[in-house]
């Protein structure tokens, strides 16, 4: 959900954003590629093993902090999901002025990777970086590969 919030922040308050990194997110609305009904059903009854499978490859053996806030009440979790499902930044994406790096794992089923080129095509001068085989938590699992890419971008290096 952070990438969705960041899109609106960068579009509506450009003076607050000097560089933008969007990872595994979507423009939302009718233009977005949505997760499949199978994935929606799995998430509706999500258990930790389901989330682990959607976020990481079988090779990942690390600890994750990406599975949500365990202190969130059921009404808060529903509100979070409702806000996420209603996200539609399509019309404001061209207003983003900050240099933008778009990262996505190619095997992300939570937010399909087909959304990354959509974002790159709507945000002026955006840079697209797809990580082969990465799932929704690819930036955590493959941090050793991605940290130099992100650091170079944030420092303004090619």
Automatic annotation (TrEMBL):
Is Mitochondrion found in the keyword set?
Answer: no
Which keywords does UniProt give here? Hydrolase
The answer on whether this UniProt entry bears the keyword Protein biosynthesis reads: no
Which residue intervals define the domain Serine aminopeptidase S33 in the entry? 88-141
Q: Name one GO molecular function term.
A: hydrolase activity
Tell me which GO cellular component terms the UniProt record holds.
membrane
Q: Which SUPFAM superfamilies match?
A: alpha/beta-Hydrolases
InterPro entries on file: AB_hydrolase_fold, AB_hydrolase_sf, Hydrolase_4
Query: Pfam families from the xrefs?
Result: Hydrolase_4 (PF12146)
- The name this protein carries in UniProt is Alpha/beta hydrolase family protein
Question: Which organism encodes this protein?
Answer: Paractinoplanes atraurantiacus
């Amino acid at each position: 959900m952070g990438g969705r919030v960041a899109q609106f922040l960068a579009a509506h308050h450009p003076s607050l954003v000097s560089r933008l990194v969007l990872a595994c997110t979507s423009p939302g609305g009718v233009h977005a590629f949505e997760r499949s009904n199978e994935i929606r059903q799995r998430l509706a009854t999500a258990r930790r093993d389901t989330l682990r499978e959607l976020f990481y490859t079988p090779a990942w053996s690390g600890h994750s902090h990406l599975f949500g806030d365990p202190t969130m009440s059921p009404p808060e979790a529903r509100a979070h999901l409702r806000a996420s499902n209603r996200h539609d930044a399509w019309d404001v994406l061209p207003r983003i002025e900050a240099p933008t790096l778009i990262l996505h794992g190619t095997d992300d089923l939570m937010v399909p990777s087909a959304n990354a080129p959509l974002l790159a095509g709507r945000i002026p001068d955006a840079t697209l970086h797809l990580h082969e085989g990465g799932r929704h938590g690819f930036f955590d699992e493959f941090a050793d590969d991605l940290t130099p890419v992100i650091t170079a971008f944030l420092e303004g290096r090619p």
